[in-house]
Design brief:
The two termini are 45 Å apart. The protein is of the alpha+beta class and 671 residues long. The strands form 7 sheets. It has an 8-stranded mixed β-sheet with strand order 3-2-8-9-10-11-1-12. The chain is 25% helix and 25% strand. It is elongated. A hairpin with a 2-residue loop joins strand 4 and strand 5.
């Protein structure tokens, strides 16, 4: 719905702001603050940066004041993009996400929070900002999981966009196909002229504003000047000085970038990159976040705030065994390859709108256009070659919507397994939790602690079992719980073991250490329908005899005549009469393991890599060799970004993957 151009005289700009403020709306627009232009609350048109413009180069942004004699001196939007954009208002840097309370009687209540503030109106949004907002719509409310705070803020958002009359040297929206024209996403669109604004309405809400203001039609000459102005801005970007090296070519960029993940330029750029996270903080599309937990002194009441995080920070990729992206080059590669390549696989678009903020606000002046032109330089295609099609975003195997609600459950039984590992049996009548499939996990919440993902080790008719190793404060607390304690679960989450892939085939199960826990439910399911499968062989490794899990259960399984069980330990004293050595030694020379086998593997990453190598040598097909991966899964639904592996969010698209699906990513360092 588009209303033909109307005209708003400059002296009536304040009338527009006043209309936006009706119904209690908070109006956000560009303002001068601390020597820069940012989006902040305004009360009138006088708060806008009238007469100010900006210029930028890699690593530097400058404000410029027009003189009263200049024709454009009264313009309010004659500047390039503000450093902050819309994101701090639609997706704030920190919001309360989860609150939990433990009542005096011991009962636990956990609730997910959503925004409750006044509705918002934005004036001064640019085309690249709207492109970024559309990306957030797909990520935060268009996928299988919805960020409730974002959805609440977005639901009643009113947007007045401005088409760009100027562009900075760092802008490249024309390259990314997002601007400078505003083609979608706004309620009203303004083109600023010296004497006022050509206005068009692009929604019913925009039409209502035009009617309220009783605007007269714009003169044909004014409409023509507005169009010419935007066209001139487009031409100025196409004529801008190109970065060093070959031209930055977006066509086919995803494929070229993913083909160069081992390019030497990653190490070169790491020599300059400070890993300061400036680029991700000013980026209007970056959505990665973490949880910051706080509580009262007795731990009865606590909250978890969702706050911006960055793939450049040291703790972003931290797991129990250390960081899986320890080097600056790993982190820069993750950011750039996600933004321009794997975003296509996940969400069906680029993750970049071409606003250039990351270039302008990088303290060492790194220009992504230059890096892309070197790392993913266009290659000459043979005559008649067809361009590579962009893949559609992945389909989620689970429900259309993943809930974020927590269910309060009771600890019915506590069973120590080793010195640092305990199994909790959690009683529940929740049908979703009891519908868990082997290989899935839950997020476990108790007041005052982080919310860890825990694999489900057994599914009973009236309960779930969680086997937990004390690796940090939260898991240590969970292992010390007593029967009768309450905790809150969210799930089941993730992709289960594909039992259907093993029907009619031999099955090999390889577990290392705590990795036996996610496989325990699989073993139960296989034995419950034993007649559907061929030979089943279970190979278990542990650090020492004292670190073995489910000792009595393993002994009972070993006594069966329809199942082969072999156990080894890495090291042991004279009291151990069993095998000593790494787990791959148990089946390296076993015959019959190969082509008719489906294999399921879980354990430390190095152990799984070794197992994959041996099983591949034994002719187990990569599409039938299944692993479950550990990553930093903070949200469990693919919204926080911590667990990304290439084009996959491990928590949502996994944690179970086949070796064929992972491909070279399984062994690529720092990915």
């Amino acid at each position: 719905m588009v209303t033909d151009g109307r005209f708003l005289p400059r002296e009536r700009l304040d009338d527009l702001v006043a209309v936006l403020r009706t119904d209690g709306r908070q109006v956000i627009g560009p303002v001068l603050e601390d020597g820069a232009i940012r989006m902040a609350e305004i009360e009138s048109a006088s708060d806008l940066p009238i007469g100010w413009s900006t210029s930028s180069i890699p690593g530097a942004v400058r404000l410029q004041r027009g003189t009263p004699a200049e024709a454009r001196a009264e313009r309010a939007f004659d500047h390039a993009v503000s450093w902050s954009g819309i994101k701090p208002w639609t997706y704030p840097a920190k919001v309360e996400a989860i609150t939990s309370e433990r009542d005096p009687d011991g009962s636990l209540r956990v609730r997910v929070e959503a925004a409750t503030g006044p509705p918002l109106a934005v004036i001064g949004a640019r085309a690249c900002d709207l492109a970024a907002l559309a990306v957030h719509d797909r990520v935060l409310q268009g996928g299988p999981a919805i960020d409730p705070d974002y959805a609440a803020r977005r639901a009643d958002l009113l947007i007045v966009a401005v088409e760009c009359a100027v562009a900075a040297s760092t802008c490249f929206c024309t390259t990314m196909g997002t601007g400078p024209e505003v083609t979608s996403g706004a309620d009203l669109v303004l083109d600023e002229l010296d004497e006022g604004f050509v206005v068009r309405a692009d929604s019913i809400a925009g039409e209502q504003i035009v009617e309220t203001l009783a605007l007269a039609p714009a003169a044909p000459a004014q409409v023509r000047r507005a169009r010419d102005q935007v066209a001139a801005t487009r031409r100025s970007m196409s004529k801008a000085v190109q970065p060093a090296g070959p031209a930055f070519e977006p066509e086919g960029l995803r494929d070229r970038l993913l083909a160069n993940l081992d390019h030497p330029r990653w190490a070169e750029i790491a020599e300059r990159c400070l890993a300061c996270a400036n680029c991700t903080m000013v980026c209007p599309t970056c959505f990665c976040s973490g949880l910051q937990v706080s509580s009262d002194l007795d731990g009865r009441t606590s909250s978890a705030a969702r706050q911006w995080d960055s793939c450049f920070t040291a703790g972003f990729a931290q797991v129990a065994g250390g960081s899986f992206r320890p080097r600056h080059q790993d982190r820069y590669r993750q950011w750039l390859s996600h933004k321009f390549a794997t975003w296509w696989d996940q969400f069906g678009s680029s993750g970049c709108g071409g606003c250039g903020r990351c270039i302008a606000w990088c303290p060492v002046g790194i220009d992504v256009r230059e890096e892309l032109s070197v790392i993913a330089a266009p290659v000459a295609e043979p005559s008649g070659a067809q361009p590579v099609a962009v893949p559609p975003p992945p389909r989620h195997d689970g429900p259309d919507r993943i809930g974020l609600a927590y269910v309060t459950c009771l600890v019915a039984e506590v069973r120590p397994e080793t010195a640092d590992t305990t199994t909790l049996r959690i009683a529940t009548d929740d049908p979703l939790l009891l519908g868990t499939r082997p290989g899935q996990f839950v997020m476990v919440a108790v007041p005052a602690f982080a919310i860890p993902p825990i694999s489900i080790s057994r599914i009973n008719p009236d309960s779930l079992e969680l086997t937990i190793r004390a690796a940090g404060p939260a898991t240590s607390f969970l292992t010390r719980l007593s029967p009768g304690a309450e905790l809150a679960l969210r799930g089941p989450l993730g992709r289960p073991w594909p039992l259907e892939d093993a029907v009619g085939r031999d099955v090999v199960i390889v577990a290392g250490g705590i990795g036996l826990a996610p496989l325990r439910g699989l073993i139960d399911a296989l034995l419950a329908e034993r007649e559907r499968y061929g030979a089943i062989r279970l190979y278990v490794g542990a650090r020492t005899p004292a670190d073995r899990l489910y000792v009595e259960e393993l002994d009972a399984l070993a006594a069966r005549d329809d199942l082969l069980v072999r156990v080894t330990v890495d090291r042991a004293g004279p009291e151990w009469l069993g095998r000593v050595g790494i787990v791959t030694q148990l089946f390296r020379s076993v015959t019959g393991t190969g082509e008719n086998v489906t294999a399921f593997v879980c354990g430390p990453e190095r152990m799984m890599s070794a197992v994959v190598e041996v099983l591949s040598d034994l002719k187990v097909a990569p599409e039938r060799l299944w692993l479950t991966l550990e990553r930093h899964m903070q949200c469990g639904v693919g919204l926080c970004g911590h667990c990304q592996l290439g084009s996959r969010f491990v928590c949502r698209d996994g944690p179970v993957f086949s070796v064929a699906e992972l491909g070279a990513d399984l062994h690529r360092e720092g990915l």
